[in-house]
Structure formats: structure tokens, C-alpha cells
């Protein structure tokens, strides 16, 4: 750092000289090169934050239905279980549509495709807000799932490409963080807006944020080169490996358990006398708080202890916590503890599972494995909301915990089997 001496000629004693009354002040100054480098480093993260804002829109749009389930079902003249299938539609479109769309679309300009996808997010959310019949909402949800399945992987790839190699993990975490923050802030905001106006305005809120993200992408994200095309056969090639299939089954089972409860968190706790429908927004916010902790600490624990102990630990605690859900519903305080712990282990499970999927795989397979794992996550979300809706229709919301606990226990068992298979394969001559 340079040092600049400044002599002040003015004196409060009026002598106008820099003598005893004057002061020689030394201040630190950064060289212009350091300032310029710091500015460039800061500017490099601006488009990453904008891309994370788009991921926040995708996350809010995905989870918002759980927070507005009751008024939406009433307004569209359908059952709560039927309205929950809108989560199934979104998740299935993401899980199955994303690989197909990414294969069919030749990404010659990732920036242009990012702009198109986030702009389409505005359109589909306006359509959801204006839905006058269940089939219109279903079309809007399917379209939103396809658009999110296009935007989120592209945003992650673009964010990783705009920062130095040793900062790519943080850039990817910021995109995932946008989705997790949606459960902490986006969905509760949507529930609050619903309480002030209607559930339709909650989707208008998502559309408005998507408009801001669209403008931000247009102004800040640089144009990149074309991405290499990957055929559908190449994308699904890892499915020939038993350890990959078992790993994806772990993801599906775990996400089925989690989303079965999350989608119907309103009916589950609204029926509990000690909680009630008025605190559903608070419970969703508490879950989002736990999700942020889990996403942050989960990656750190994986780096320190490895993926397997963190994965098994999270899934085991997750299973026990779900089994205790009826006890948690006996008071508001215990319900809050339940959803926070659920958020922590449920979201810490995700980075551990991602690390587990690619830990023993050749580097060239990593992108395909992560893509397949992302599809498995949303396939589990679709299955969870569908099974949860069937349970509500047949047995009631107070029985969901039984099925969710069963799926969580299956995820633990599958994880143990996968470890045995992986160990056996690695030790074979």
C-alpha cells in the first residue's frame, strides 16, 4: 500500500501556516492496480447473483403450491389432494422434460437461452395467476417445470464458467442457495401475499421477480461460447452401472419422503389443534431456515468426513424425525423444532448425495451423473406429492407420516446396499 502525506495549511489559530497548529495527516491508499483488480473480482460475481435470483424464482415457483394449497383448491373447485398434484406435474416435467429439452436444443448461445427461459418464467406464472380451471393450472405447472429444468442447469454452468476455477464450488452453491432461500423467504412471502390478497397474487409476485431477473441477465451475463451437444444416449449411459441405479434410487426414495410431507404440510398441521392453519407460513419459514443451515454445513461436513457417513447420518436422523411427526404436532414449539431439523438433514443430504454419486466415477461422467441425480430429485418430488395426495384422499393427512417414514427407511437401506456394491466392485481384481 502507498502512503500519501497531506499537509493542511489552514489552522484554527488563523496563522495560515502548517506549523505547530497544522497537521500532517498520513492516510493509506491502495494502488490503482489493486483497486481495479478488486473491482473486477466484485463485478464478476454480479451476474452470478443475478442467476441465483432466477434460481430463487424457480425454487419459489416449485414450493409455492404447498403454501397456498387450501385457497387454490377452493378457488379452482377441486380437492386438496387434487391440487397437490400440481406439484407432481411440475416435478415430473422437470425430471423428464429437462434431459429431453437439453438434448433437443442446440445451445449455441447460453446467454440467449437463459434469457428466453427466465422470460418464459414470467409468462407461465402469469398464466398460473390467471388460471380459471384446473387444466389451465396444470398446463402452467408443466410448462414451468420444463422451463425451470432448462434454466437451472444452464445457470449453474454459466455461473461456474464466469469465476476462477477455485471459486466454482461457491458459484454453484450460490445457485443452489437461491433455491433454498426460496423455502426461507420466497414461499413465506407468497403465503403472506395470499393472506393480504389472494393466492393468484403470489404467482404474480414470482412473475415480478422473474422480470427483474430477466433484466439482470440481459444487462450483466456475458455472451458465452456454444456448449457441446450431448445425445440422449450419452446422458443415460451411466444407468447401465448398478451403483448408479442404486444411488439414484436413494435420491428418489429420500425426496419422495421429504416432498410427501412438504407438499401437504398445510393439511398435516392445520388439523393439529396445537398448531392450526395460521402457523403454516411460519413452519415453512422455519423449514427454510433449517435448509440453509443444512446446505451450508452439509458441504463442510462432507469435505471433512466424506460423503458416506454424512449421507447415512442425515438419512437416519431424517427417518427418525419423520417417525416422530405425530408427537411434534402436539405443540407449536415441537412442530417448529421438527421442521427445522427436517430442513437441516433434508438439505444436508443433497450435497452428500451429489458427492457420493461422483466420488468413484470417471471425471467425464460427472456432468451426466449430476444431471441424472437432478432428474431423480424431481422424480422423487413428483412421487412424493402423488403418494401424499392418495394418502390424504384414502386415509387422511394424519397418516402421511407413516408412508414418508417408510420411504425414508428405504433410502437408508438402499444407501447401505449401494455402499456394499461399490466396495465389492472396487475390490474385485
Give the key terms.
mainly alpha; two-stranded antiparallel sheet; 2 strands
Short synopsis of the structure:
Helices cover 77% and strands 3% of the residues. It has 429 residues and is mainly α.
What's the SSE blueprint?
Blueprint: E1 2-8, E2 23-29, H1 32-67, H2 69-75, H3 80-104, H4 110-129, H5 134-161, H6 168-196, H7 199-220, H8 232-236, H9 242-263, H10 265-270, H11 280-305, H12 307-323, H13 325-328, H14 332-358, H15 366-394, H16 400-427
Antiparallel strand pairs: 1-2
Task: Describe it.
There is one protein chain. The protein is 77% helix and 3% strand. It has 16 helices and 2 strands. By secondary structure, it is mostly helical. The chain starts with a strand and ends with a helix. It has a two-stranded antiparallel ribbon. The chain has helices spanning 32-67, 69-75, 80-104, 110-129, 134-161, 168-196, 199-220, 232-236, 242-263, 265-270, 280-305, 307-323, 325-328, 332-358, 366-394, 400-427, and strands at residues 2-8, 23-29.
- H/E series: EEHHHHHHHHHHHHHHHH
Low-confidence spans: 1-27, 35-39
Task: Please count the helical segments.
Answer: 16
Question: Percent range for helical residues?
Answer: over 70%
Mean pLDDT: 80
- Structural class, judged by helices and strands? mainly alpha
Radius of gyration: 25 Å
Q: Strand order, main sheet: write it out.
A: 1-2
Q: What does the overall shape look like?
A: globular
Question: Could you state the oligomeric state of the chains shown?
Answer: single chain
Q: How many beta-strand runs?
A: 2
Approximate strand percentage: under 5%
Biggest sheet overview: 2 strands, antiparallel
Give the N-terminus to C-terminus distance in angstroms.
Answer: 59 Å
Amino acid at each position: 500500500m502507498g502512503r500519501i502525506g497531506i499537509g493542511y495549511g489552514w489552522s484554527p489559530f488563523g496563522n495560515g501556516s502548517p506549523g505547530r497548529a497544522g497537521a500532517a495527516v498520513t492516510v493509506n491508499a491502495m494502488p490503482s492496480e489493486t483497486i481495479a483488480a478488486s473491482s473486477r473480482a466484485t463485478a464478476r460475481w454480479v451476474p452470478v447473483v443475478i442467476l441465483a435470483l432466477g434460481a430463487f424464482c424457480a425454487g419459489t415457483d416449485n414450493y409455492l403450491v404447498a403454501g397456498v394449497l387450501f385457497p387454490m383448491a377452493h378457488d379452482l373447485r377441486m380437492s386438496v389432494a387434487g391440487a397437490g398434484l400440481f406439484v407432481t406435474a411440475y416435478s415430473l416435467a422437470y425430471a423428464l422434460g429437462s434431459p429431453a429439452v437439453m438434448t433437443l436444443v442446440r445451445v449455441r448461445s447460453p446467454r440467449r437461452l437463459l434469457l428466453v427461459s427466465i422470460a418464459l418464467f414470467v409468462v407461465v406464472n402469469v398464466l398460473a395467476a390467471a388460471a380459471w380451471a384446473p387444466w389451465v393450472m396444470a398446463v402452467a405447472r408443466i410448462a414451468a417445470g420444463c422451463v425451470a429444468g432448462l434454466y437451472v442447469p444452464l445457470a449453474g454452468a454459466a455461473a461456474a464458467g464466469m469465476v476462477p476455477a477455485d471459486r466454482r464450488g461457491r458459484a454453484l452453491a450460490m445457485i443452489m442457495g437461491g433455491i433454498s432461500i426460496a423455502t426461507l423467504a420466497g414461499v413465506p412471502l407468497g403465503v403472506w401475499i395470499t393472506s393480504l390478497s389472494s393466492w393468484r397474487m403470489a404467482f404474480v409476485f414470482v412473475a415480478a421477480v422473474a422480470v427483474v431477473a430477466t433484466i439482470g441477465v440481459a444487462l450483466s451475463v456475458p455472451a458465452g461460447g456454444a456448449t457441446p451437444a450431448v445425445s440422449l444416449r450419452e446422458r443415460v449411459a451411466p444407468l447401465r452401472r448398478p451403483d448408479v441405479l442404486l444411488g439414484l434410487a436413494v435420491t428418489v426414495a429420500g425426496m419422495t419422503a421429504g416432498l410427501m410431507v412438504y407438499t401437504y404440510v398445510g393439511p398435516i398441521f392445520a388439523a393439529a389443534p396445537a398448531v392450526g392453519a395460521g402457523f403454516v407460513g411460519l413452519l415453512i419459514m422455519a423449514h427454510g431456515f433449517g435448509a440453509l443451515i443444512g446446505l451450508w454445513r452439509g458441504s463442510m461436513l462432507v469435505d471433512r468426513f466424506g460423503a458416506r457417513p454424512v449421507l447415512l447420518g442425515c438419512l437416519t436422523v431424517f427417518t427418525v424425525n419423520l417417525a416422530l411427526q405425530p408427537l411434534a404436532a402436539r405443540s407449536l414449539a415441537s412442530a417448529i423444532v421438527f421442521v427445522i431439523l427436517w430442513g437441516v438433514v433434508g438439505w444436508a443430504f443433497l450435497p452428500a448425495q451429489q458427492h457420493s454419486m461422483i466420488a468413484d466415477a470417471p471425471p467425464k461422467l460427472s456432468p451426466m451423473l449430476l444431471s441424472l441425480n437432478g432428474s431423480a430429485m424431481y422424480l422423487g418430488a413428483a412421487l412424493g406429492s402423488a403418494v401424499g395426495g392418495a394418502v390424504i384422499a384414502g386415509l387422511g393427512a394424519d397418516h402421511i407420516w407413516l408412508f414418508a417414514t417408510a420411504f425414508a427407511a428405504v433410502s437408508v437401506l438402499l444407501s447401505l446396499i449401494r455402499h456394499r456394491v461399490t466396495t465389492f466392485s472396487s475390490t474385485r481384481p
